[in-house]
Amino acid sequence: MSGRNPTVRRVATLALTGLLMGSVAACGGDAAPAAKQDPGSQLEIWIRKPPGSNTEKTAKELAAKFTERSGVPTHVTALFDDFETKLQQAAAQKQLPDIVINDSAQLGTLVKQGIVREVDRAAIDGQDKLTPASWDAAKGADGKFYGVPNSAQSFALFIRKDWREKVGLPVPKTWAELDALAGAFTTKDPDGNGKADTYGYTVPGSTKRGYMSWYFTSFLWAAGGDYFTGPAGKLKPAIAGEKSVAAVEWFKAQFCTAKTVAPGAVTMETTQAHPVFETGKAGIYFTGPYNMGRFDKNLGADKYEVVPAPAGPGGTAASLAEGENVYLMAGSKNQAGQEKFAEFAISVDGQTIGMAGDTDGNIVRLPVNSQVTLSSVRKDTRWDVFDKVYKESGRYTPVVPDWNPFRQASAETINAVVANCGSDPKQELTKLAATFQQELTKQGVAG
């Protein structure tokens, strides 16, 4: 994908393999000693946020306050594009940061690579104040913890309120009403400019980082479909089941029959999808609370509304639940400092700083500390929608040793289905189920 010289890639791979073997030994074995500890050494902190953004400023504020309280020096680096690739490059160069704040969905991959160390949950001060669900997002398939939860989130519908009122339709309570609204936004000139240049749905459907699967997951679950069935450790593919196929057929229809999806969706990442909504090209966007500050500024808070996605055909509402963990990276010279930083990040003060009030600088979306009252930090009641969705219908991705291969494979299949209007969803999902079965067997969790 990167186009790098194969020889260079092989050298980097060998270097990474050597480092990872050393990291694993340092974490749990006796083959290699742990790095010599220096409790005064600076903590290098990486966050997956755009450089120069308000989220980077919040992360730096959090780190500065931690340094002020603890005396442990810190340095924050914000990276966004190709974050995981850059982390692997740092591993190959034996220059891993001490702390990484990144998606909970990356946990399995980081554990597999051997570049994070196991967390003794009981030894983390304040761990008992965190919600049980948040700790689930930091747990590996082996039942051990490999991160400290820092933030949670769910997703909701952002709808152009002014457009909805223009076409005279209600806030959607069913998928049929949602599709009717998307159709009206596509065909009834909701912006009144006399041109057929508006659409219903904004979809970040790129295969990069598995975006298409990430976006579609909530709808798959709401339709009664699923990726797997069976108990943990004895999983079977469910992606080609009747309800899963029906969900993909519904999704494909938006692209191919109703044509309510804004053009370019199959190559869009979120950074390209956001402007589609805020510039008036599409009026419905299923996304997270982190976009409210941006859309308030670029579109206007009075132009859109935030509402829960309606229940699917089976009568169930569902939202992908996500979050970010504080990962304590292997090989750190300051393990005590790593733990202190994690403890501060999950404290009431740390969570409050990370929430950044009602601004778009939040690195904590929904607090994981049960002692933090959302309304005491944020006066914007729209956050309550996401909090309610998370608590009532939020659901994390399946716990497997490494979720990324499943997310990537499903993203590529669903992307291909909607991009080709002559495709056969049942046939393609049956192939995907076979891929899932192979991967489940490979990871040792097949039923």
Automatic annotation (TrEMBL):
Molecular function as annotated in GO: maltose binding
Cellular component, GO annotation: ATP-binding cassette (ABC) transporter complex, substrate-binding subunit-containing
GO biological process: maltodextrin transmembrane transport; maltose transport
Coiled-coil stretches: none
Signal peptide coordinates: 1-26
Annotated Gene3D superfamilies: Periplasmic binding protein-like II (3.40.190.10)
Keywords for this protein: Signal, Transport
PROSITE patterns associated with the record: PROKAR_LIPOPROTEIN
Pfam families assigned to the protein according to its UniProt record, in alphabetical order: SBP_bac_1
Family: Belongs to the bacterial solute-binding protein 1 family.
The name this protein goes by in its record: Sugar ABC transporter substrate-binding protein
